[in-house]
């Protein structure tokens, strides 16, 4: 029932004042009140150096050795205390982001991986399943550990020192694990050799959005249309403003509630997190190819929200996921775009379904997006050569 017309066929992104939660004022107020991210200055410098390593230069023409993608991944916390003993967590394992980063690297991209501390990372995401697969005959209290697929070889004896502690020797993976892990290890080493992967970690929504802005601004300035922003992180919809948070751990018996209760509960007022997609698209890196994600349990709501996101924020593609099918099928949604010279790019809703012989649907997503990005970047370069206006009408 969802046709390209449902996704805005015949319409360019509207140029109108956004709702207050999307406004520049809301974003500026959020950043002004947030505690500074711990490595903000260093991250800006590292991102710029990463771009230079791949052939870009500040204020340049956006031409480099390879395209660069920013992949955001994992959940964000909303602290309830400045000491962060208690917080609201928007859980995500980061598997989609980690897998996508691997496939972008395969496609020749350099990857800036902005991820939640402790979430899955590229080439490491297979470790937990390898441990489980290799330890079927080993059981201990709790989950299987990756340490269980390792062994210490006593070089003086020439065999595994599994009969007791050893003060030396060589640590290696057991044969079954080594065979499974070898491709990931080789891919990781290749990415490291090429300097193609830059990892930046965050924990809170305050840190995430500050890093997102800094990285996008650098990519926008140095890479132009050769940059892609792939927003797979699960961002907190609500947060408690930093100024309202207590310095120390909240006590369970602190007298009456602020709303006049009898002290048997806790009332916390949360505010809606400002929507930053429009700022990514139009302010921070306006020439980059921007990809957003939508996840819902109801397919009708999913497509309606994907369409609204395209129209409101102007993302080039929205990847729409239905919760129950997210590992097996997604919809790649885009608006028709009307360019300054009158030409048009049709809007589409394309379903991608994972074949039974394909481990990850992320490979299909990345292949689709890489082709769209290639065509988009070529078009932008052609316009610059002709001296045309930047971007689409309605920007």
Automatic annotation (TrEMBL):
Residues 69-120, 222-327 form the DNA/pantothenate metabolism flavoprotein C-terminal domain. InterPro entries: CoaB-like_sf, DNA/pantothenate-metab_flavo_C. Residues 1-25 are annotated as: Disordered. Coiled coil: none annotated. It comes from the Eukaryota. One of its GO terms (molecular function) is catalytic activity. SUPFAM superfamilies: CoaB-like (SSF102645). One of its GO terms (biological process) is coenzyme A biosynthetic process. Belongs to the PPC synthetase family. This is DNA/pantothenate metabolism flavoprotein C-terminal domain-containing protein.
């Amino acid at each position: 029932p969802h046709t390209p017309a449902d996704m805005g066929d015949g319409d360019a992104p509207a140029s109108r004042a956004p709702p207050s939660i999307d406004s520049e004022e809301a974003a500026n107020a959020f950043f002004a009140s947030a505690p500074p991210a711990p490595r903000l200055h260093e991250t800006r410098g590292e991102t710029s150096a990463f771009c230079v390593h791949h052939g870009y230069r500040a204020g340049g023409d956006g031409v480099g050795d390879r395209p660069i993608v920013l992949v955001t991944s994992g959940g964000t916390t909303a602290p309830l205390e400045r000491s962060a003993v208690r917080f609201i967590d928007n859980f995500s394992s980061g598997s989609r982001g980690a897998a996508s980063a691997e496939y972008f690297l395969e496609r020749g991209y350099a990857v800036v991986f902005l991820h939640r501390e402790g979430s899955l990372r590229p080439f490491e995401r297979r470790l937990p399943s390898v441990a489980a697969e290799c330890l079927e005959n080993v059981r201990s209290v709790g989950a299987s550990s990756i340490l269980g697929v390792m062994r210490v070889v006593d070089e003086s004896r020439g065999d595994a020192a599994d009969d007791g502690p050893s003060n030396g020797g060589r640590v290696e993976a057991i044969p079954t694990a080594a065979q499974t892990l070898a491709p990931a290890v080789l891919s990781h080493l290749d990415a490291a050799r090429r300097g193609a992967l830059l990892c930046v970690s965050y924990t809170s929504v305050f840190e995430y959005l500050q890093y997102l802005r800094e990285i996008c601004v650098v990519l926008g300035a140095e890479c132009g249309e050769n940059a892609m922003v792939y927003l797979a992180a699960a961002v907190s919809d609500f947060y408690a403003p930093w100024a309202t948070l207590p310095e120390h751990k909240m006590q369970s018996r602190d007298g009456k509630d602020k709303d006049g209760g009898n002290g048997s509960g806790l009332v916390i007022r949360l505010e809606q997190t400002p929507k930053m997609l429009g700022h990514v698209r139009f302010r921070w890196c306006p020439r980059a190819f921007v990809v957003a994600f939508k996840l819902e349990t109801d397919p009708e709501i999913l497509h309606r929200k994907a369409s609204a996101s395209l129209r409101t924020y102007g993302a080039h593609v929205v990847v729409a996921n239905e919760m129950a099918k997210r590992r097996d099928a997604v919809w790649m949604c885009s608006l028709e775009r009307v360019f300054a010279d009158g030409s048009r790019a049709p809007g589409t809703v394309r379903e991608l379904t994972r074949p039974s012989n394909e481990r990850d649907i992320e490979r299909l997503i990345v292949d689709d997006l890489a082709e769209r990005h290639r065509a988009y970047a070529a078009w932008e370069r052609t316009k610059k050569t002709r001296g045309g206006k930047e971007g689409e009408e309605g920007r």
